[in-house]
Design a protein that fits this description.
The protein is about 40% helix and about 30% strand. It is an alpha+beta fold and about 180 residues long. It has one domain: Yope Regulator, Chain: A (2-Layer Sandwich), CATH 3.30.1460.
């Protein structure tokens, strides 16, 4: 028996050039991809669940650090601030006292649509990009005494500095005369 989105998930893995094994859960009517990922030298996990009822659930976890108890309030402020900026998905702290992880999650109902591997990737990529972009403030607030406001301020300064450098190098070519 082939599950409804088995071929779609295989197409996604081919598109991403991954060779992980899919978990086929016929009883619950879902195809699950669970894989390890590295996001800017931080190890983590990615899970995609494609259910026969047209629901796709996307998750990313940082797995090599846990949020300190004393930092939970600042982490919640940081993650809710970042999540407000997102166009897709949200960040949250999940787990119990001994194992609190930062997770990005997103849920899509594809009822009436025919998602492809590319469609799945377009819903998966924002989580990857978010965790990649915000890794420094997340780790700082999770593991140090840095406040959410300070971590975000430093992050925004780094982003502006990178943008300025990018614009500077892009504009440097404007001074080169055209060849005759």
């Amino acid at each position: 028996m082939t599950l409804k989105y088995e071929d779609t998930m295989k197409d996604f893995m081919e598109f991403r050039e991954w060779n992980d094994e899919l978990i086929l859960d016929e009883e619950d009517g879902k195809v699950v991809l669970s894989t390890g990922v590295n996001i800017k030298k931080q190890s983590g996990g990615a899970i995609i669940e494609a259910r026969n009822d047209d629901i796709f659930e996307f998750y990313f976890y940082y797995s090599n650090f846990t949020v300190k108890e004393s930092n939970l309030d600042q982490m919640e402020i940081l993650l809710s601030t970042i999540s407000r900026k997102l166009m897709i998905g949200c960040l949250e702290v999940v787990g119990d006292v001994d194992d609190r992880r930062v997770r990005w999650r997103h849920r899509v109902d594809f009822e009436g649509a025919s998602p492809t591997g590319v469609t799945v990737s377009r819903n998966f990529q924002p989580g990857w990009s978010t965790l990649e972009s915000y890794i420094n403030p997340i780790v700082a607030v999770a593991l140090t005494k840095q406040s959410a406001a300070d971590a975000l301020s430093e992050h925004e300064a780094e982003v502006e500095k990178a943008r300025a450098a990018e614009n500077s190098s892009a504009n440097a070519g404007d001074d080169v005369p055209d060849e005759l």
